[in-house]
Amino acid sequence: MITASNRLLTQALLKRDFNLTLSIPDGRLCPPVPNRLNYVLWIQDILFPFHRNVPKEPICGLDIGTGASAIYPLLACSLPNAERWTFVGTEIDALSAQYAVQNVTANHLEPKITIQHVSRSATDESCVILIPFNDPKARFDFTMCNPPFYGSAEEIAESAEMKNLPPNSVCTGAETEMITLGGEKAFVLQMIHDSMRDNVRTRWFTSMVGKLSTIGEIVQHLRALKIENYALTQFVQGTTRRWAIAWSFGIDRLPDVSGSFHLSIPYMT
Ligand SMILES: C[S@@+](CC[C@H](N)C(=O)[O-])C[C@H]1O[C@@H](n2cnc3c(N)ncnc32)[C@H](O)[C@@H]1O
């Protein structure tokens, strides 16, 4: 459960710094603003490396699992260059999708942000990039995602124990937000496979992850698939660290920042 103080802090920071209003239902994740802003700013660096060649035309992002807060679209569309950003946010949980729509509307961002409540069909039951691509011209400049980190409730309890915390302190969200079959690694590996489908036209695919070891496994997988164009980063806020990976089938190359943390990847031929 999210605590009242967490929720008030997030709401106050969003109001003070971005003039955003946010409501989150009980039992859903309360996003920490600095970490979410870090990820949005990294996306900006990926799209406009060295802040050169900033295009005049709008950029369109796909936020996979936007949550009740729709935090990434709201933040991006409140940046100083907000006129550039447009978003589609997908969400598999009906209550979160409903709140995401309300949060977009409350901030008058409907012209820039579309929320889609998505579900898995029998034909794509393992996919994680769930969005109809019926329009042959539809394309995204980037995707972003904060996947459920854990594979089971036991894993959440283990993680709390390792951090010497009570079990419910690492689990502030609903099961759908925190747990996915196989954990974050399986989610992102599936996303890589989805990204290889012909109909997912996107310049950069990205995801945040909660464990450094996951990044190593993802990189190994990308290399095995001969996807050589990828970039890594880490987000550090106080004692909390998160990592993120981006990969592309395009020709844009990013500066290598992986040297800023140690990544142990077995030798690959
Ligand atoms: C960890 S929460 C992240 C919420 C929000 N983006 C944030 O960063 O605070 C993961 C979200 O992804 C949603 N989700 C899980 N699988 C999904 C999928 N394949 N497509 C869309 N949403 C999904 C969950 O319901 C949950 O809201």
From TrEMBL:
Residue positions binding S-adenosyl-L-methionine: 36, 65, 91, 146
UniProt keyword Transferase present: yes
Cellular component terms (Gene Ontology): nucleus
GO BP of this protein: rRNA base methylation
Keyword terms, alphabetized: Methyltransferase, S-adenosyl-L-methionine, Transferase
GO terms for MF: methyltransferase activity
Recorded family membership: Belongs to the methyltransferase superfamily. METTL16/RlmF family.
PANTHER family given in the database record: RNA N6-ADENOSINE-METHYLTRANSFERASE METTL16, SAM-DEPENDENT METHYLTRANSFERASE
Protein name: U6 small nuclear RNA (adenine-(43)-N(6))-methyltransferase
Source lineage: Eukaryota, Fungi, Dikarya, Basidiomycota, Agaricomycotina
